[in-house]
Amino acid sequence: MQSEILFRDYPRSIALRPIQFENNGNPYGKSNPLLLLFDQVQQSYNDSPLQCNVRLLRESDVDIMEYRQLGSRAVYGCLGLLQVERAVVTECIPLGEIRSNESVFRIIDVEFYSLTNNTRYSVSTSASNRYYDDSSLNESSQQQSYEHPCTQLRKLLSNGHFYFSSDFDLTKTLNVRSKTSSADKYTYDDHFLWNKFMINELLNFRSKLSKLEQLEMDTCGFLVLAIQGYVGIQETRIDSSNVTLSLISKLSCKRAGTRFNIRGIDDDGNVANFVETETILQLPETCFSYIQIRGSVPVFWEQQGLQVMAHKIQVSRGPAATQPAVERHFNELQSRYGDVHIVNLLGVKEGEYVLSKEYKDRIIDLNGNGLENRVLFTNFDFNSICKTGNYENMIQLFSIIGEKLEYFAFFALDRETNSPIFYQKGLCYHPKQTGVLNIIKFWGYNLGTNVVQTALSKDVMNTYIRLMGNISESDIESLQSRHSILWAENGDGLSKIYTGTGALRSEYTRSGKITWAGVLTDATKTVNRFYINNFQDKSKQEAIDLLLGKLLNSKAIEIHDPVNEAIRQDILNRLSDYCLKSTINVFVGTYNLNGRLPSGESLSSWLFPFSDYEPDPHLFVIGFQEIVELKAQQIVSADPEKLRIWEKEISKALNSRSGQRSNYVILRSGQLVGTALVIYARSDIVSNIRNVEYIMKKMGLGGMAGNKGAVAIRLDYHDTSICFVTAHLASGQSNTEDRNRDYHTVNDGLIFRNGRRLLHHEYVVFFGDFNYRINLGNEEVRELIYQENFEQLLKFEQLTNQINYGYAFTEYIEGPITFFPTYKYDNGTDEYDTSEKARAPAWTDRILYRGNKIRQIGYSRAELRVSDHRPVMSSFDIEVIKLDEVAKKKIQGELYLEKQKTLSRISDSKLEKTNYARKFNNASDDHKDDITTTDNSNIDKETGPPVGVLINFDESNKKDGLPPPSSETFQWWADFKGDSSSPMVVDKSVINRKYRNFSSNPFYESNPRLMRSMSLKPLIPSKPTTPKPVIRQNSMGSILRTNTFTENDDEFLAKAPKLFDI
């Protein structure tokens, strides 16, 4: 149903009113429709949650004359609330019906209306969709135009790939919908509801309404649940009967993003570009459904930098650290769909082989080394088998999985009884490396997934049709033709969402033929993809994160609820009831390798200096500098081979020591030329870690080269955020300011996804080769070292002084330095530099930290002689928390009900006291003697007199003809029931009729009362007189000019009234 938008200026309010038509076409056929109102709520303090007030009222309950219509465009419902904006659908296209009374609409345009802002914004679309501008703005401000803050989001929502239905829950499959009633259409599947962040509070508001109010609100179509993907509907005829063929593809919003920004799996088991596609065929008596899914390869992998010609693929986590996420992924799939059969379309060339092997290994581990085939896995190298357009070779795939397809079957529903006839027992999963990795060789890669899914859907649908009886070949061909059209459009639509262009070789999917024109079109698409994915996807990714509420500053709009406000502090006070605190131990080490490889000496003195401490560290965090020699050819790109060698050496030391109690796996590693960071996690705690991200910052050659820079890895341990940063700062004895500048570049410039910076983490450990030196001569430094006079050396140590001066690392803490300087040694010896340069020793390698609940256990160095530096290490105890959201919601519900009852009792008590006050003040003549106004014996001694009772008021003093006295709870002009002929009684209906068209705001420019007062002749003020100053002289004879109103003025005091005169 369509609605119109109404607006009130002060206090600011926006309303949705359904547009209803009588049979004669007259709008507003119902005289008293429902209105959904949104009112501005002022924040009580800076950190208070953003709120608005939402009401569902009849038009008769609202002063509708205070509202005016905004524009002439109808809207199709509200997408939700986004900080200070409210989004509505302003234009959509009806696509048809999936089934009877199941209409689907495609969103074409949306608009945002503000509850707080008066500023005029420019919008890149048509002028009819202008952002609201307050008419009270002056002319100069109207001439200014600013970009709409939601321009990118509006562009995203208006791209033609979002759909909604007011009749049924589009987020669910036919199988699931058949088990629920139509009243459950707002019990959505949050995997596919893209505006969940915006509309969730409105759905909570709806859930608190009565069943009748919910039904009326749903009938008005106020709320819109939107999916992103593709919906296509084709109608044809079979045996003279109308049939409808539909295709619904829903893109998951759990791990959403653009091609090179979001890849692989996350810690919760969600994969990028996950799409659920359902083919629905509605026949006269039955309805058929077949589901397939596709998604990115479910391992941790990424692509960074410009993707030109080469596969720059990096598997970012080790097998053991990946396995928990893989298990979560397939457990979720099996709980939703049943059995899963993987059809792996990856090839054997370059990066595809790396991913395919890693994927297969994870499935083998998942199935217990092949002992139990929980998940079936079939390799089908589509690019090799079907190269040069030989798609008839897909018959090989059907020969492999045909038996499983027959077992999985499909879902079918009897339309008359709405009861299932067949159940789909499983599905085929098409993991893919979505997108073109190699622009020339793999330009047809996206084709693989859509072509294979089209063929499978077609085969299963044909099986079902033949089960239904004798159907002519011409009817089958007509149906298959429409099936191909839908799948070709589906491939184009999904490809545009993820890559920015239509699918490659979609011409074959549509017509079954390949032409030279199609080849040229695909080449153009490939070039466009390269430009879009490398240069335009960043802003699109930000819009996606804004829509889903994943940006750091994203705050959900809360609907104002006084009870929630009242219990907010109570919930915090009961934090211990739903929050579990624990302590983890973290080992941190840093080592400048000077480009050297392991020499065979034991690393135990470095990695286990605190071996007596219990328990084993939960995390080992290792930072390297100069892991490769910093030569000219090395400073632009990194050589990962030496890092792999050191990773294996450390893994060996961690997992093969005597008395080993724990096993460690590589959680994440990252490298920037010579700077690298590796995190090892105890295998039994890997499942506690989420949201691991890696980022690097170049600082060499003005940010162009990576010979100097930083690498950071952040993670969430349960619900506690921790960030580790290793850095290699500017070298040189006198370059202190350059090092300070490098520090600020790293500390302020490291930005993770969604805008998260170092300052947004609860704990940060900052370590590496900072290169700060000692401001003393070489000989003097060595002499003080020989004397072990570290206290005197630290007085001249640059980093210590820079911290004290507030120039660098001011937010960080460093433990006491009790070890010898770590730089610079002759390689393989214990002698400080004896070369010609003879550099002065210094503590260049440091570990600093910050956080509220972090305790340093030890801080020392190890005697490894591989490099010209000595490694440094430290151990930390960190307090982490784990929130139990289920317990929190339970406690919140209990507190809500308890507070609601308390407020209800208080309200009832006040009502009783108010009634008593009114009875007292309106006592009839027959009962006046029953109440003695001077006797307060009937007043509760503890609670005091009832509100509204005038203490010791004598009725005899009341003037004749006057109403009873007013009070806080009784107003004679509102409640007096006396003689209507009294001059003190005003008929409110007369006022309402007289001023019905007046604005409630007396300063509104169209208010007749204001215009009438403005037309009166203005009063001319009398000429002001200046007070005559009093001239006085001080003891020196100087003239003093005093204030005429000061108490020292004799003339003023003489005229002032005396106390006994008052």
From TrEMBL:
Keyword Zinc: no
Main localization category: cytoplasm
Species whose genome carries this gene: Dentiscutata erythropus
Leading EC class: hydrolase
Protein name: phosphoinositide 5-phosphatase
Localization (cell): Cytoplasm
InterPro entries the UniProt entry points to: Endo/exonu/phosph_ase_sf, IP5, IPPc, SAC_dom
GO molecular function, one term: phosphatidylinositol-4,5-bisphosphate 5-phosphatase activity
Region: Disordered, residue numbers: 924-946
Keywords, sorted A to Z: Cytoplasm, Hydrolase, Protein transport, Transport
GO cellular component terms given for this protein: cytoplasm
